From TrEMBL:
Protein name: Small integral membrane protein
Lineage, top ranks: Bacteria, Pseudomonadati, Pseudomonadota, Gammaproteobacteria, Pseudomonadales
Transmembrane stretches, start-end: 6-29, 50-67, 73-89
Alphabetical keyword list: Membrane, Transmembrane, Transmembrane helix
Length: 90
């Protein structure tokens, strides 16, 4: 495991992704979802919205690293807000 810099933010990130996946699995088992349309231009399921939210969050982190000197915690906070918006209204 020497190939990865295991810092607190890195560990929190991977724990959060793991918890999201477990939560989504339990939600799908309890209440299977149907495709719906929100502000995204396609019909999506919960899993689709999670994937889109995580993908945009990764690009948001890269954008903030590349064009600003903001802390990664700002990017993480913006990503959480984005993910919540996409999961609710996307």
């Amino acid at each position: 495991m020497d190939w990865m810099a295991w810092t607190l933010p890195t560990a929190l990130f991977f724990c959060a992704i793991g918890l999201l996946l477990v939560g989504m699995t339990l939600a799908e088992l309890r209440r299977p979802c149907v495709e719906r349309r929100g502000f995204l231009p396609i019909a999506t399921t919960r899993g689709d919205r999670l994937f889109i939210g995580l993908l945009v969050s990764a690009y948001l982190h890269l954008l903030i690293i590349g064009v600003s000197d903001w802390s990664l915690w700002v990017a993480s906070l913006l990503s959480v807000v984005w993910l919540l918006v996409v999961m609710r209204w996307g």
